[in-house]
Amino acid sequence: MACPHDHQIADNYGVTCQDCGKPLEGYGYWASTETCQHRWIDNGDGWESCLYCEATRQRDESSDSTA
Ligand SMILES: [Zn+2]
Ligand SMILES: [Zn+2]
After folding, report:
1. 16 within a domain of the structure (yes/no)
2. Does residue 67 belong to any structural domain of this protein?
3. Could you tell me what percent of the chain has a pLDDT over 90?
4. What is the DSSP letter of 37?
5. pTM for this model (two decimals)
6. Within a domain: residue 11?
7. 53 CA to centre of ligand 1 in angstroms
8. What's the rounded Cα separation, in Å, for the pair 64 and 54?
9. Extended beta strands in the chain, E state
10. Closest ligand (CA of 53)
11. pLDDT band of 52, cuts 50, 70, 90
């Protein structure tokens, strides 16, 4: 039942699993979902921004293990 997401397809909008169709990052491949699953990139200065949308957030030091 749990899909290992071994076959992923990606474009500028996001990443989707080809096997189960689940959007894994951003808006999914070809923007298949309206909700961005943020992929946070550290910009330095204690801030992170999403690779796929315009969102930014202050880096949360307590959630380092979620990558
Ligand atoms: Zn999958
Ligand atoms: Zn985002």
Report:
1. yes
2. no
3. 82
4. B
5. 0.78
6. yes
7. 22
8. 21
9. 8-10, 14-17, 23-26, 40-44, 47-50, 56-58
10. 2
11. very high
Q: Report CA(19)–ligand 1 centroid distance (Å).
A: 5
| Ligand at shortest distance from the CA of 38 | 2
CA distance 33 to 17: 13
Nearest ligand (C-alpha, residue 17): 1
Question: Angle at CA 12, nearest 5°, toward 8 and 16?
Answer: 25
For residue 58, the enclosing domain spans: 7-62
How many structural domains are present in the chain? 1
Residue 2 lies in a domain: no
User: How far away, in angstroms, is 37 Cα from ligand 2 center?
Assistant: 6
Residue 65: φ, ψ to 5° = -85, 0
